[in-house]
Design brief:
- The chain is of the alpha/beta class.
- It folds into two domains: about 30-115, Leucine Dehydrogenase, chain A, domain 1 (Rossmann fold); about 140-265, 3-Layer(aba) Sandwich (Rossmann fold).
- Helices cover about 40% and strands about 15% of the residues.
- It is built from ten helices and eleven strands.
- It has helices spanning about 10-30, 45-60, 75-85, 110-115, 125-135, 140-155, 175-180, 195-200, 245-250, 260-280; strands at about 5, 35-40, 65-70, 95, 160-165, 185-190, 205-210, 225-230, 235, 240, 255.
- Strands 1-11-8-7-5-6 form a six-stranded parallel sheet. The chain has a three-stranded parallel sheet with strand order 3-2-4, with helices on both faces. It has a two-stranded antiparallel ribbon with strand order 9-10.
- Strand 2 (about 35-40), helix 2 and strand 3 (about 65-70) form a beta-alpha-beta unit.
- The longest helix is centred in the first third of the chain and has 21 residues, at about 10-30.
- The termini are far apart.
Length: about 280
Amino acid sequence: MAAVRIVGKEIAEEIRQQLAQETEDLKKKRITPKMALILVGDAQDSALYVRTKAKAAESVGSIGEVHHLPEDATLEQLMALVEKLDWDDSVHGILVQCPLPHHLHQYEKQVMGAILPEKDIDAFHPVNLGNLLIGDKCYWGVTAFACIKILEKQGIDFKGKHAVVVGFSIEIGKPVTVMLFEKGCTVTLVSPDVDFAPYTRQADIVVTEVARPRAITGDMLKPGAIVIDTGSNWVDGKSVGDVDYDSAAEVVAAITPVPGGLGPVRIIMLIYNLLEAAKDKAGV
């Protein structure tokens, strides 16, 4: 039986409607969630991501405000803008679009660390990452959070499941490992640079962060598993995942396609964090 194709747009729309209602309720209390997005330079893909995130905020009735610095902006200019937004009481969430231009790339951690933790809705600040690890209140990184939300929508019982995460970035692999463990899974975190097939063949849940096109094939997966493919690799001008979708779909129970799987959910979880920031600031 063919796998269930997990359509991210449908999950995202369901969550968007819930967030729109929450935003309406907040506005009745004179609270309008506001996200400030910082774009440095003119890279077309970064500009597209920023516009998409701003539109997502607006789609629930919140504000997505874009601050555009020129390609040759200095670190001092960028840090001054972050500080200004940190102390702007009307702003509930701040996002700096990465990657930054080449001359600023080495300062990305410094810039992320300058955002107040309570406004760090992308969840890259060391305080949010650290609180995730110790189980304290924090924002969840939106890509890892989207993986968990998609799994929840499949109605699975996490307890006792064996989850295998291939990849270990602070955006996906490391945080999703902690989140799955907190949900009751036994979790194996595997480097994408080793032979991970012996691990993925045992997994009830697989989350991929391999960064290689179609690196995981159907014979490397357990029958009945659920696969969350976070990959985005370009092949012949098209975006493809870390998983060979066609062969995997003959084996697993459910799988996210690329594109159309994780992406829409990732964007809406950013707006979820924005609303949480607004509610926390207002004490509601």
